[in-house]
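Sample entry (274 residues):
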Amino acid sequence: MLDDAHKTSPSPTTATRLRVEDLSAGYGAVRVIEGLSLAIPDRGITAIIGPNGCGKSTLLKAMARVLPAQRGRVLLDGQAVHAMPTRAVGRTLALLPQGPVAPEGLRVRELVAQGRFPHQSLLRQWSREDAAAVARAMTATDVDAFADRPVDALSGGQRQRVWIAMVLAQETPILLLDEPTTFLDLKVQVDLMTMLRQIAYDDGRTLIVVMHELNVAAAFADWLVMMRQGEVAAQGPVAEVFTEGNLERVFDLAARVLTDPESRRLVCVPRVAA
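Predicted structure, serialized as tokens:
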């Protein structure tokens, strides 16, 4: 029997607005991912996990067309994303890269407002609609209280909420987040992922999140993608992917996978010699 959170969570289906087909990408002559194919289920949270250097961030950048495809393609609503106009992509898909840095002295409200860039043009300047989108994003991430404070004066967890507010202000149905919980305390990670899950479920958005902490990923994801050496080693519902065999094969980690009796979520416990 599932806990209440999972009873109401969207189940991944065969429908997908974002698809990767035979994709190879990298940096210069170095290919990091090779011949990778992947379908991201609509709605809910897809977590991408894997050892350091396996290509998680490279995949995310290629999906967001920050990196070119050396081979294959990324399809967004059936169109090759690398051939689409930048603003058209920016109105459908938002990317929060790993470790973003705000200009010194930039205030919270000013940073969040930058998420409206894809909606601006020479003929369409700042509007009430933009102001309302910024206000909604700040409320959803609970950063209203320090809207006029400099971003660099905030704690790590607060700053990350502000960056998430910025991508929420784009009001895209798809969000790509590259390790948004890295270097944060466990309690802050849990609070942040709880917020992201609420956003995904309440708004019906699709979140693709590169994650480092295995148990946090298993606790909050609806769909898991395990990567190894530039390829997808396993993908599917958490219960099918988060197994002892996959953890050993992908991470070289000897661990037991247990079911928490209260939440029914899976937890991996490393095997330690007595």
